[in-house]
Amino acid sequence: MKFAKMHGAGNDFLVTESPGEERDWSAISMAMCDRHLGAGADGLMLILPSDRADFRMRLFNADGSEAEVSGNGVRCLVKYAVERGIAPAKDGKVSIEAIHDILVADVFMEDGKVIRSRLSMGRPKFKPAEVPVKADVAPPIVDLPIDVDGQTITVSCMSIGNPHAVNFLDSSVHDYPLETIGPKVENHAAFPARVNYGIANVISRDRMDVRVWERGAGETLACGSGCCAAMVMAHLKGLVGDRVDITQPGGLLTVEWDGTGDVYLTGPAEFIFEGEWPL
After folding, report:
1. pLDDT tens digits for range 7-58
2. Tell me: domain 128-261, CATH 3.10.310.10, correct?
3. What is the 3-state secondary structure (H, E, C) of 152-217?
4. Where in the chain are all domains bearing CATH 3.10.310.10?
C-alpha cells in the first residue's frame, strides 16, 4: 500500500488513497503509526471517493481509534488531493466529506503547489450532548470544574466535529504538566467519548499559545481543531477578537470566528516522504 507522510505545523499523518474497500484500518493504523516499529505518525488518513464532495476522509489515530476530523490532517489531504490531481481546485476551492459535515477549503497555490489552505471547520456546537460532556448546565459550557486526582481543573467545552475541553492558564503553557494531566482529562468520567484536552494562554487580543493532548494520539506538535476550540472559547469569554494567531510547539496556525458562523483554520501542509507498506 503506497502512502505519503505529511505534516501540518508538525502534526504528522500517513496519507493513503483507498477505493473504499474494508480493511482492518484500526490495526493498520497502529502498526504504521508506531514511531519505533512503523513509519511513525499521529494518525492514518484515508482519501476515499465521495458522492457528496470532491473526496471523503477517514482518520484513524495512532491508537487505532477512529476520529471525526483533524484540521491539520484535512489540510494535508487537500494538498495531496490537489497536487495529485484527485480533486483539482474549482474556483480555488475543494470540498471534503467528513463524518460530521461537508468541509470546504480555500486553496492558495504557487507554481502548481498548494502553499496553504483556509479550511471551514463548520459551526461550533455547545450543548452538553453535542460535545458530549456530562454537565447539567446551560450552554455554552465555560469554566466547568472537574476533579482530577483531587485537583480542581476548570474546562470550557465544545465540539468542532470532535470533542474539546480547554483550560485557560494565567501562566506559560510550556510549564504545564500536560503529559501527566492530559491522559487523565482525556479519560475523565465527564467525557463519555473521551476528549481532546487543550491548555491555552491568551497573550493579547490576537495572539494565543496552545498545547493539546489529543484523544488517541497523546500530545501533538499542533492540533488544528484544538486551536479552533481554544479560540472560540476565548472569544466567548471576551478575551480575543475575531482573528487570532495561535502558536503551538510545531508552528503557527490562524483561526477566525465572528461569534456566529463557521470557524476558519489557516495554515501550511508539507510532504515529508513517500513509502510503501506491506499488507
Report:
1. 999 999 999 999 887 899 999 999 999 999 999 999 999 999 999 999 999 9
2. yes
3. EEEEEEEECCCEEEEEECCCCHHHCCHHHHHHHHHCCCCCCCCCEEEEEEEEECCEEEEEEEECCC
4. 2-122+267-276, 128-261
Q: What are phi and psi for residue 96, nearest 5 degrees? A: -130, 130
Strands (E), the chain: 2-8, 11-17, 43-48, 55-61, 66-67, 93-97, 102-110, 113-120, 141-148, 151-159, 163-168, 196-204, 207-214, 218-220, 243-248, 251-256, 264-267, 270-276
What is the architecture, at CATH level 2, of domain 2-122+267-276? Roll (3.10)
Predicted TM-score of the model (pTM): 0.94
Annotate 216-246 with b (16+ C-beta within 10 A) or e (fewer): bbbbbbbbbbbbbbbbbbbbbeebbbeebbb
